[in-house]
Amino acid sequence: MSGHSHAKTIKHQKGLADAKRSAAFSKAAKELEIAAKEGGDPVFNSKLRMAIEKAKEVNMPADNIERAVKRGTGELEGGKLEEVSFEAYGPGNVAIIIDGITDNKNRTLGEIKQILNQNNGKLVGEGAIRWMFDRKGTLVISMGLQNENFRNKENMELAAIEAGAEDIYWHADGSMLDIYTKPEDLEKVRKSLEEKGIKADSTSLGWVPKENIKVGDKDKEACQKLFEALDESDAAQEVYSNIED
User: Fold this and answer.
1) pLDDT tens-digit series, residues 182-241
2) What's 82-131+212-241's CATH class?
3) In the chain, where does the domain assigned CATH 1.10.10.200 lie?
4) Which top CATH class is 133-209?
5) How far apart are alpha carbons 134 and 5 in whole angstroms?
């Protein structure tokens, strides 16, 4: 299976600028609050554990994390958040799934529509895009951060298979590996890899395209601008596409 969250790759490459830190904290807080509704202990709530990891990745202060979790569990007053998902086509007929968390679905819908319209994209009906993707667990591995034994591609692939991976995807430059699992196997695979000494950069549940499509340089650049605009918007939490690297 080829493909991964293209927007996540952009985030990894760009890093987190100070000007965007507030927006990143806001997105992380919403994800924490939603996850904590299923229980406030990350030991028993893997969704919350993943949300805490993501919050730490953007250097969200521990106090902020704690408050967001307490809003989710009801210990502190919070807004009525709900998860939303939109399907769209981008430049070059690239298929896109946009997941969000909001306290006002109509406002979020309006923001997403505006960003798409400004970037040669269009919203489509429910189900028009989603059939092109599978729901998968994803572990992103930075090869340069692993111990010497697992900097070898063959050793890393073998370890992933032994841990229960369904499929893998090497990024173009070979510096990163996406390991895909069934959604229900994500935690088991993560633990198995950690026991081998392999630590993932990030662990998430998301949408993986069944097939990627190639587009020309002009459409690829236009898609990148669209992904960045969505990434900078508070309306979108995660963005997935079937564009080939």
Assistant:
1) 999 999 999 999 999 998 888 889 999 999 999 999 999 999 999 999 988 888 999 999
2) alpha beta
3) 6-73
4) alpha beta
5) 12
Question: Can you give the pTM of this predicted structure?
Answer: 0.84
CATH 3.30.70.980 domain range(s) in the chain = 82-131+212-241, 133-209
**Maximal C-alpha separation, the chain:** 51
Task: Quickly list DSSP for the chain.
Answer: -----HHHHHHHHH---GGGHHHHHHHHHHHHHHHHTT-S-TTT-HHHHHHHHHHHHTT--HHHHHHHHHHHHTSS-----EEEEEEEE-GGG-EEEEEEEES-HHHHHHHHHHHHHHTT-EEE-TTTTGGGEEEEEEEEEEGGGS-GGGSSHHHHHHHHHHHT-SEEEE-TTSSEEEEEE-GGGHHHHHHHHHHTT---SEEEEEEEESS-B---HHHHHHHHHHHHHHHHSTT-SEEEE-B--
Distance (Å, rounded) from C-alpha 177 to C-alpha 144?
Answer: 11
Architecture of domain 6-73: Orthogonal Bundle (1.10)
